[in-house]
UniProtKB/TrEMBL annotation:
Belongs to the YjdM family. PANTHER family: PROTEIN YJDM (PTHR30305:SF3), PROTEIN YJDM-RELATED (PTHR30305). Residues 47-116 form the Protein YjdM C-terminal domain. It comes from Azospirillum cavernae. This is Alkylphosphonate utilization protein.
Length: 116
C-alpha cells in the first residue's frame, strides 16, 4: 500500500498506484495526487467577488455599492478601494476582513466587492 495516502472519495487506506494514477479498489475512484493538489477546491470553499473572480489574501478590491455601517451613521461609498484584504470564515456571510481609510477595521461580504 502507499504511505499515508488515502482515497479522497471514501477515505480508504487500500489504494494502489497504476502509472500516474492512484486507484481505490473499494469505490473504484481514480485520481492523480499531483493534479489534485494544484486544482482549485471544488467544494465551493473559494471566495469569489460579485463578478465571479476568485479572491485571495492580500488582494485589493473595490466596493460596488454604498454600504451602511451597522450601528453607525457612516456610509462606505461605492467605488471605495480597499487594499490588503484577509479572507475569513466569518459569521453572517462576512468573509472579508479589512481596514478602510476613515472607517477602520471592517468585515465585508464578497458579493459587494469586485477585484481591483
Amino acid at each position: 500500500m502507499s504511505d499515508d495516502l488515502k482515497c479522497p472519495q471514501c477515505n480508504s487506506e487500500h489504494v494502489y498506484q497504476d502509472g500516474s494514477l492512484w486507484i481505490c479498489p473499494e469505490c473504484a475512484h481514480e485520481w492523480n495526487p499531483d493534479a489534485a493538489a494544484s486544482a482549485p477546491a471544488a467544494d465551493g470553499s473559494e471566495i469569489r467577488d460579485a463578478n465571479g473572480n476568485v479572491l485571495a489574501d492580500g488582494d485589493s478590491v473595490t466596493v460596488i455599492k454604498d454600504l451602511k455601517v451597522k450601528g453607525s451613521s457612516l456610509v462606505i461609498k461605492g467605488g471605495t478601494k480597499v487594499k490588503s484584504i484577509r479572507l475569513t470564515d466569518g459569521a453572517n456571510g462576512h468573509n472579508i476582513s479589512c481596514k478602510i481609510d476613515g472607517v477602520g477595521a471592517m468585515d465585508l461580504k464578497s458579493e459587494f466587492v469586485k477585484k481591483a
